[in-house]
Amino acid sequence: MINRLLEHYPTAYTSKTPIQTKGTICFWLEDGQQYIGIPIEDLTPEETELLKSLFPTFHEETTLNDTYQEKRWYDFLLNNEKEAKMPASIENGVFRIIQFAVSKKGINTQDLKEALKNMFAFDVTVIFLNDYHGFIVEEKQQLNTTEDDFHASLLAFENDFYVPISLYIGEFKNVYKLKNFFQYEQKLFQFARSHISASLLFTLKNILPVYLIHTLPIEIRKQLFMSIFDVFRDDRELWKTVKKYLENYTNTSLTSKQLFIHRNSLQYRIEKFEEKTNLNLKMFTDAMFAYYACLDFEYIDEN
């Protein structure tokens, strides 16, 4: 795909990071795990809309970042040139980046910015990459927004705008380390939006296991988890049960309540799984192996 696009657009370039050049749109190519930047003047309006549909993660020059702080953060985090230095006012600060993506266009960008800022108790900087995709810079405080707070904000956002929004909560980093780490977090968010459809709130903790599994070729993954996949294909409810049981730290009471089944029924299902797979879910290594299989089963089974 990349080679064909480069042949069609000779002035285009590729990059592992979203280098924003004036007059250029950068599209993220999932298959090649890199961006392709194409000059806007080389694209017809029809081609632009088609590429945006094919590659929904893209960066383009925007006038939405109109304040000095927004422009400085944009340049510092996304511009790879030497002159893109950190703002002097934040040299000793600790920050995290919360990435956001709205599922479709149609929301007034100023309303979107205001809704995003309302998710936080302190002032934050909202930077747009396009009309419905960008990131928020939050400085570390004594009381920062928690994951539970973000879950509540996601529900409120969808109720207000009738459109879901997905968030990636980044890790707090000293500003000197923030830029490079943000590049990895962008890849993780892009991966999550493509492969983890069951969630709208992502963190390093809940993405990394799935991401690491997907670095292996699909045929190897099939071989590694073959015996467990066979069990799950025979009984898909068992897959849901084991996954929920492991996510609840093997807590039988909590899991049975969430699945609306009796404790004895849950225990029977777990014993059935352990007997067929020769795994002991009370052992950490066995439980971890089984959970990796649970995470990968639905994707493998569809492919």
TrEMBL record:
<protein>
    <submittedName>
        <fullName>PucR family transcriptional regulator</fullName>
    </submittedName>
</protein>
<dbReference type="InterPro" id="IPR051448">
    <property type="entry name" value="CdaR-like_regulators"/>
</dbReference>
<dbReference type="Pfam" id="PF13556">
    <property type="entry name" value="HTH_30"/>
</dbReference>
<dbReference type="InterPro" id="IPR025736">
    <property type="entry name" value="PucR_C-HTH_dom"/>
</dbReference>
<feature type="domain" description="PucR C-terminal helix-turn-helix">
    <location>
        <begin position="238"/>
        <end position="293"/>
    </location>
</feature>
<dbReference type="InterPro" id="IPR042070">
    <property type="entry name" value="PucR_C-HTH_sf"/>
</dbReference>
